[in-house]
Amino acid sequence: MRERYGSIAIWDRFFCEFARFTLLLHIQENNMLGSKKSEALLANIRNGLPMSRREKLSLIINLSIPSMLAQLTTVMMFFIDAGMVGHLGAEASASIGLIESTAWLIGSVLSASAIGFSVQVSHFIGANDFVKARQVFRHAYICEIILSLFLLAIGVAIHASLPIWLGGDAAIAGNSSSYFFVFSLTIPFLMLFHLSCDMLKCTGNMQLASAMSVLLCVLDVGFNYVFIYLFGLGVIGAALGTAMAYICTSLPVTWMTTCRNKILALKLDTIPFHWVWDYVIKSAKISFPIAVQSILMSGAQIVSTLIVAPLGNIAIAANSFAITAESLCYMPGYGIGDAATTLVGQTYGAARKDLCTSFARMTVGLGMLVMAFMGAVMYVFAPEMIGLLSPVEAIRTLGTTVLRIEAFAEPFFAASIVVYSICVGAGDTLRPAIMNLISMWCVRLTLAAWLARDYGLKGVWTAMAIELTFRGSLFLYRLFRGNWLKGLAEKPAVETLQTT
């Protein structure tokens, strides 16, 4: 027993050192890149000034690096949760893996509802109309608070039955139910954290959002260690640790966004707040396709869980760990996607069509390059990545195999992530949502159900790799065809100033 907990302590110190390193890296990165340079370049976009190719690339990198760090540290939080619980055994791991897709469903609904507001904020900032940007900002917080409380009530109501609905064994249903109950109570704080960070990104302040994500990861490590091992709460301890981390970070980042931001601080308003239904209606038009997509995509993940569940607890745990480990590789793509959404949103609001197209193509190329490299890293180090999450040999072997299958699809996964982010920045959400749904339901799930019968979890992940390649190709076609920019009129005498 002493040897076991000694190895856990070593593992825990490793992640603590990683979190400390990422925080120091963020500070160094902030000093090197400088948020003031990014602010100046973003101001050039709003003011119709020319930008060279070097300046555009510099701005993309300046916005992408902190956003990548934020995405990676967010995934590390789930990686840490899964790894700490993984050392408690296969049943504990399966209890979290069973309800993980449902938790992602709730998070994706919150995210989708916020996008409709954040896109409008980004467009108004690009048009130099900061007053309207703050008005939309106020509407966003009011609507999101109401939605998060509604989702909290639903989560609490279904937490006891959910593991049974998902086909989980009786041995893991209790822990799954308790984990989901604690998660449900955390939903309002999760909403505050991510909405505040999204609004910061709209203004181009990726640095603060990144720093808060690093802090979230550090606190998650500490609280998890206390609740899981010192208090001996196991799976429930992992849920409580994550909840405390969100509570301790969501409140300060909300204050910094609403009170300290140079563009969105509410104290800058000199006119009384009035409710404007047009902002809500426009948000709904943008968000509804994303919300439906998020529900059906997460529903597809739940169906995928149902396909995996009959394969046994080893397959459930290996699938959950592989998903978590793969997240470390595709989160840089989401980081670049965040930068693309900000840049496309502001250039779209500024009506700079050529600059908007240029940023779109450059971010997609960078995303595919980075994730191709990450795919190679994942292929080589798959045994070590799964090994950090579980000491069970059967889980490690199966997880390694499916990760290596997925590695080949990473560049096309990047294309789908970044192009989708570009479309969101332009307010083009309906067709990309349809493309995602067709690809997921008609290609991935059909293939997964067929291949799982003969090849088990390896068949499920083969279907995933094929589908991601297909989806990436569809999005690349939409990008270069240019329909996502339909309706945007070029400002006269703006892009003619562009230099090469």
Automatic annotation (TrEMBL):
Concerning InterPro entries, the annotation shows: MATE_fam, MATE_MdtK, MdtK-like
Answer whether the UniProt record assigns the keyword Metal-binding to this protein. no
Please provide the record's keywords in A-Z order. Answer: Antiport, Cell membrane, Ion transport, Membrane, Transmembrane, Transmembrane helix, Transport
The Gene Ontology biological process annotation of the record reads: monoatomic ion transport
- The membrane-spanning stretches of this chain are 59-80, 92-119, 140-166, 178-196, 208-230, 236-257, 362-382
Q: What is its main location?
A: membrane
Annotated CDD domains: MATE_NorM_like
Database matches in Pfam families: MatE
Any one cellular component term from GO for this entry?
A: plasma membrane
Q: How does it sit in the membrane?
A: Multi-pass membrane protein
Kindly list the GO molecular function terms attached to this UniProt entry.
antiporter activity; xenobiotic transmembrane transporter activity
Subcellular location per the Swiss-Prot or TrEMBL entry: Cell membrane
Per its UniProt record, what PANTHER family does this chain match? FMN_FAD EXPORTER YEEO-RELATED, MULTIDRUG RESISTANCE PROTEIN NORM-RELATED
Q: Which NCBIfam families match?
A: matE
Q: Please report the name of this protein according to its UniProt entry.
A: Multidrug-efflux transporter
Gene source species: Segatella maculosa OT 289
